[in-house]
Amino acid sequence: MVRQYGFLVDMRGCYGCKTCSMACKSENATPTGVLWRRVREFTFDDPNGMAFISMSCNHCDDPQCMKVCPADTYSKRPDGIVVQDHDKCIGCRMCIMACPYNAPVFDPVEGKTSKCNLCAERLDEGLKPRCVESCPAGVLQFGDIDELRKRYSADLSRIETHYKLPDHNISHPNIVIIPAGDKE
Amino acid sequence: MSEYELPLVFFTVLCQWAVGSIIAMTALMTVQPIWLNEETRFNRLRYMALAILAINIVGSFLSLLHLGSPLGAYRAILGLGHSWLSREVVAFFLLNGVVFIWAAVVFRFNRNRALVKSVSFVASLAGIAAILVSAQVYYQMASHPMWHTLITHLNFIATAILLGFVTISLMVAVYQYRQHAPQGKIPGLLLTGILLGVLLMFWVVLWYSHGVNGQGQMVRSAIAVLGSGLMGWLIFGGLITGTCVATYLYKQSSISMVGATVLMLVILSAAVCGRMLFYSGVMSQSPWF
Amino acid sequence: MKNISDIRLNRRTLLKGLGVIGLASISPCAFSLVSEDKKPLPRVRLKLSDYQTFRSTCAMECLHCNLTAYVYQGELKKIEASKDFNVKCCLRGMSRTKWVYHKQRVKTPLLRVGEKGEGKFRPISWDEALDLIEKNIRDTIATHGNKGMMLSTHAGNMDSIKNDMGKAFFDYLGGSTKQAGSLCCSAVTAAMMPIVGLRYADMRDTIADSRYILCWGNNPAVTMQAYFKEYIKAQANGARLVVIDPRFNETAAKADEWVSIIPGTDTALALGMIKIIMDEQLYDVDFLRQHTGAVYLVDAQKKQMREKPEDAESYLVYDTLTQSTVRHDAPGIVPALTKAELPANAEYTTVFELIRTESQQWDLAKVEAETDVPAATVLRLAREYASSKPAMIVQNMSGAQRTEFGTYVAAGQFYLALLTGNMGKAGGGVCDAGGVRQMIKINPPLPAPKEVQKIPPIPVSKVGDWIVNERPHPINFWWIMTMGVLTQLPNTNMVKKALKKVPFVVVADNLMTSTTLYADLVLPVTTIFEDVSLMAGVRSHYVQLMEKAVEPVGEAKPDYWIFARLAERFGFGEVFNQPIEHYIENCLEGTGITIEQLRKGPIKPVDAPWIPFKDGIFRTPTRKAHFFVEEWQKKDFAPIVTYMQVKESPKGSPELAQKYPLMAVQRKLARSVHSSHGMNEWILEVQRNQPNIMIHPDDAASRNIRHGEWAIAFNNRGEHRALAVVTRQIKRGVVSLDNGWWEQQGGSSSHVTNDLTEVLGTGHSCNSTLVDVRAEA
């Protein structure tokens, strides 16, 4: 039994193609403007550099969305996936304000917010999350976060400073980010 | 415009205005019992109480507009166990009840001064509690340094006190203007209340400007807030005008209805601007990552 | 599913009636309640077993990744990368769901009712459309002859059937005016065919084996996306990745080194590197002797010497063993390579020595002055490239060869690979675009007609200019398919004039593209997954069957259906109106591959990693690589790679550069393939949805151009509007423009690009363009 699922992003191999983002869009048929997984682009001059971080929901240990949601729409499954009961959502957008990673997305047309559920239904069918499956370079991985952390002990603090990521102590995200290396 | 969260701006400002007015009115009744005893004066308070109730109800109703699915609003209490927004919903639901009872008491049971005073006192306390619950909603968001601070509570209370005491002071001044009778002083407590509101608000502004020296998102928020034209209006329309109103009323103790309305609108609009800054300081940074 | 949608819609309608909208002015949420209907999230998720699946491939000029369509109740629900394929498709492949059900799909034949360019049409039936086409073809042939008909096909659909059918149809009519050359890479063809004897010889199968990868004027992270994992693998194995480009591109961001260069000067860099390789004897003597024409003898008149003039392959060499001139393929000889090995008083020299002579003038200082690549970098590049084996030059239809003398640029890269003996080795060589046609022979879908008139073609870069000026003859009827002439051909304003000038323009496409706006008749054609076809081309190592997954939207028909109906009207119906399987079988005949096999999945015709020219066996008649290109000599150009200054450049046209001092290069984006996908709403959401112009801070400052604000690149040909990106990621004096934006989005960079024909290969010189840029007022 997995205690907690999570994602791994290997920035060394990511060249920013955004296929993961599109795969998510096409799998979940999210409405216009609702993108659950986005690829953040970082451009540097002097010295020149480009870097990319693909991120959706980090299924945090302490999900801020769950904490602030007044309609109790969020819950954490036994495998750690933070899922939303979309029917219960009232579109107050508190989760959007609270999530450090911009995982939940509001659809003004429907008047509700939605977010990545780590393709929980696909997992239940024995498939991988679609974004992970679609990554042309194998940059996105997924699995038991304890296993992923065992394999790659990347320190989030350094990446947070460099790419202005939110402090992981706020919500304890379940993501491993392998930095791009010396070229950062 | 969406970064200003206008429904929330009007909800919080109006309800805080109502609560502040109840507090100021309670203060007035305490320091100048004549307002309880003299029928014409008390009639002013009766209608003022109805107006305050109306403001509170309208404000609370506006909060619904913030929801993408207003019909689901009833579900907003399901998260009571963990969500300060749920608690805010309940708090304001209860507050509306309290304010309704308070207004009813003021309107109907005017002969019983003790009852009116004590109910006013209770309503004031309930109002402050509700405002603090409101502030908790934003305080709860640990990822936004501009919100995750006690300054949020201070900001909300400052707004309530400034608006409430200005309102009741102006009400007294307008009353005296219309009476053409020998004019009494505007109670010092009311004017002190105005200055206290100005001072607290000034503290908030100072804290924002101090944010420029901070780090991470706080710097960006502070720059967004200080760089906005709305800040100018908050300082002029709120801090400066507020101080002027207190000074003027200290000297003159009466004002025409037109004058009072203009001043009220200036200060109210400044409070709205201040609240727009409160939201945009964070929301304009979205996506924060 | 449907029911749930209905309930939700009703609920929304209900909300509208609730008077909440009275306060909508202050509520961003309430505002949206009155906006358009959108399908809500599918709450009931389809299971894998609910779907039917079909396979096809992206058919435009790309890598032709295999796709699997998931269909539920006749509707295309999603597209995934096929599991058993060697690479995974990109976001464009997946976004095709939205292409099939695009808001701007052409659903019926449309006849123009407004002015050209206005985009006003009325729907007509297929019968009316076909009548109209027939009448116009007959009238044109009667009044102008066959040459009055023009056919434009290109890279919008590279399957093995449709473009060929179009060309065959007009040939069966007796011929028509066609386009010569290509926008992408005819310069590469003009270099590769004479030098190594084969085009589309790519190295993608062994990229990971390389120790040194030189991406020269291209950006495989975007343009060879699916295979970029191989580059990363090579790097992980210790390979050095170097990018030569005026722009710090996405590949450069992953590379060990970025070498920025003045556009159009790449041949000078190559010659500078060759000089160092020659001076320091870093070349592969044995390889050159055995497998190349570097040893061929050249006489004083600069002609290659032959044993018998009538035997083209009888090149002479000087055998150092027998001290005599012999045929190059005589057994047991050791041909002389250098001058030192020739007799002292010889009146001839070797091709190798010609290359040395040509490169000798390119000392480091001169290379630096011409290319702006620091002398030390040139020296290091040459040494590293020559000594880290295997080293690969990624040519992949480089932007560097889309310049006035692009053939020399491409040829210079082959020179380097041949001199260092990198050709024909895993992880080495020159990586061109490539496909299955380099491995097996794929036949045309139908037999060629007996008599076709010889009609002079129009160079593709000059289509606009020549049609407007009636060169070489007036065009009365223009059929455009698989090509976005308005976003891809250079000098867009001239192309617009041409479209207005031709009396009857037929555009067969599946969306209301930029070009359809100028059509007289628009024909709705199918997209992939709406018809059956075959992909066995020059961009994928796999033969793939393109299956039909859903019924076409509206009245859309495959291009081959249209030509079949027209062929029936002109009396050769039976050639064109056979079932599609017939034509696919024609293509596959002799390959040993059957449709039945293809139904199970894509087939790669060779088992091992594909290494073109393996063991130094080239595809020229002599099976050797030739440095000396007689074809160029016949056109009065140097037969050995030489550097020539491009005309449209600050040095080549100082006066023009007074007005337009900045050199413009075009870039490709991951959002589109040329202009295909450019209006897909998913792409617009996931990728950047506005054009950029990259400009150096120094160039921006003097022009008051600010980062993130609109700027306009302009020259005497036109204007291109884009958001300024002020960055040091572009060379000073150079701007980078985005290719492929639609007219409806403000237009492509082709509004300003040079329509000069690349001289040796009839190619495209878009990267030899001068512009100036101004901030939008």
Automatic annotation (TrEMBL), chain B:
Signal sequence interval, chain numbering: none
GO BP field: anaerobic electron transport chain
Keywords of this entry: Membrane, Transmembrane, Transmembrane helix
Alphabetized InterPro entries for the sequence: DmsC
Single GO cellular component term: dimethyl sulfoxide reductase complex
Record-level Gene Ontology MF annotations: dimethyl sulfoxide reductase activity
Domain of life: Bacteria
Membrane-traversing stretches: 6-35, 47-69, 89-107, 119-139, 151-177, 189-210, 230-250, 257-278
Pfam family, any one: DmsC
Stated name of the protein: Dimethyl sulfoxide reductase
From TrEMBL, chain C:
A GO term for molecular function: molybdopterin cofactor binding
Cofactor(s) the protein requires to work: Mo-bis(molybdopterin guanine dinucleotide)
SUPFAM superfamilies named among the record's database cross-references: ADC-like, Formate dehydrogenase/DMSO reductase, domains 1-3
Occurrences of domain Molybdopterin dinucleotide-binding (ranges): 665-761
UniProt-listed InterPro entries: Asp_de-COase-like_dom_sf, MoPterin_dinucl-bd_dom, Mopterin_OxRdtase, Mopterin_OxRdtase_prok_CS, Prok_Mopterin_Oxidored
Keyword field: Iron, Iron-sulfur, Metal-binding, Molybdenum, Oxidoreductase
The Molybdopterin oxidoreductase domain, residue ranges: 105-569
Gene3D superfamilies per UniProt: 2.40.40.20, 3.40.50.740, ADC-like domains (2.20.25.90), Dimethylsulfoxide Reductase, domain 2 (3.40.228.10)
PANTHER family linked to this entry: OXIDOREDUCTASE YYAE-RELATED, TRIMETHYLAMINE-N-OXIDE REDUCTASE
Family statement drawn from the similarity comment of this UniProt entry: Belongs to the prokaryotic molybdopterin-containing oxidoreductase family.
Protein name listed in UniProt: DMSO reductase
Upper lineage: Bacteria, Pseudomonadati, Pseudomonadota, Gammaproteobacteria, Enterobacterales
